Amino acid sequence: MPSATQSRLHTHIVPAETAGGRVDAWLAARTGLSRVRIQALIAAGHVTCDNAPLSNASSRARVGMCLVVTEPPPAVTETLPQDIPLQVLYEDSSLLVLDKPAGLVVHPAPGHADGTLVNALLHHCDDLAGIGGKQRPGIVHRLDRDTSGVMVVAKTEAAMQGLVAQFQRGTIHKTYQALVHGIPRPSATRIETLIGRCPHDRKRMAVVQKGGRVAISRYRVTEVLEKAKAALVEVDIETGRTHQIRVHLRHVGHPILGDPVYGNTRRDRLLQIPFNRQLLHAWKLVFQHPATGQPLSFETPLPADFLQALALLRSPATDR
Question: Taking residues 272-295, what's their average pLDDT?
C-alpha cells in the first residue's frame, strides 16, 4: 500500500457493459474519488488514456480504453499556521464544524496572504495540510469574508470526498438568515436563474441570460419590519454559486442591508444604522457524517452586530 508520500495509481480497462458515459463520471464511480477531483487530475495531466494524457473530462469511455489515474500525494501547504481563535461547534477525527465570524477570510488570496481561516485551521489541526489542495486544505465550501455562520471542514481526504459528493448531490442543506430592504411579495418563493460574471464588471456576479450556471434559492419572510420597510428572511440554497444569495435577493428587488457590492447604499444611509458588512448569516447546516452516515445538524445564533441592527429596525426611527 502506498505511503502518504507516494502517488497512488488507479488502472482500469473499460468493459463493454459500462462504456459510453463521460470519462470523469466513469472514473469517479470506480476510484472512489469525487468527479471534481477527477476533473482536476485530468486538467493537471495526471490521467492517461492508452498511454497518452487525457485532455477532455467529457470524453466518452470507449470499450477497451486503458485509463490510468495517478493520484499524487497530498501537497505540502505553503500557508503558515497561525494561532487565531476558532469557535468550534463539533470536532472528531474526520471533520470539524465551526462558527465563522464576519470579517474572517476563508483561504489565502491576493490581498489576504495570511490571517485567514485556513491559517487558523492549520494551527488547530495537526494533520490538515494538503487535504483537498495546498491553498485550501480542508475547505469543502466557503463563506464570503463578511458573511458569518456555520461551516464544515474536512480533516481527512476520505471526509473531503464524502462531503464534496454530498454537496454535488444536493443532500447538504444550508439555511441562511438575512435582513433585506423592502417587504418581499410573495412572502415565500423559489428563485431559479443563471448566475455568471457581470458583463460590465468582471469582479461581480450577476443574473445572466446565457453562459452562466444554474442557481436555485428559496426564501421565506420570517419577520416584517414595517416601520423600516425591511424584512428578516430565511434562505435555503439548492446550489452554491458565488455570491448566490446576495445576487438573487438583489435580482428580486430586495438587496441585503449593508451589502457594499450588491446592496442599496442610499437606502442603507436612510435607515441611520451603521452597517459594517452585509447582514447575511449562515444559520443552519444539515448533512450526513461522511464516515458514519449519522445525520448531523448545527445551528449558530445571530451575531451581535446582526442582532443590534435587527433591534434598531424594530424600533421607531425617532428612538434611534
Answer: 95
Query: What pLDDT, on the 0 to 100 scale, is given for residue 318?
Result: 44
Question: What was the pLDDT predicted at 65?
Answer: 92
Say whether both 28 and 126 belong to one domain.
no
Per the structure, the complete domain to which residue 222 belongs is given by 173-289
Would the CA dihedral through 277, 281, 287, 289 be positive or negative?
Answer: positive
The answer to whether residue 144 is catalytic is yes
Same domain, 47 and 13: yes
- Inside any domain, residue 142: yes
Catalytic option among 144, 146, 259, 305: 144
**For 278-288, what is the mean pLDDT?**
98
d(CA 45, CA 42): 5
| CB crowding 42-66: b at 16 or more within 10 Å, else e | beeebbbbeeeebeebebebeeebe
Burial grade of 134 (CB within 10 A; 0-12, 13-18, 19 or more): middle
Name residue, grid cell 447546516: 285
Q: Which set of grid coordinates corresponds to residue 218?
A: 428559496
Contact 119, 106 (CB under 8 A): no
Read off the CATH number of the domain in which 248 is found. 3.30.2350.10
- How many structural domains comprise the chain? 3
CB atoms closer than 10 angstroms to residue 197: 15
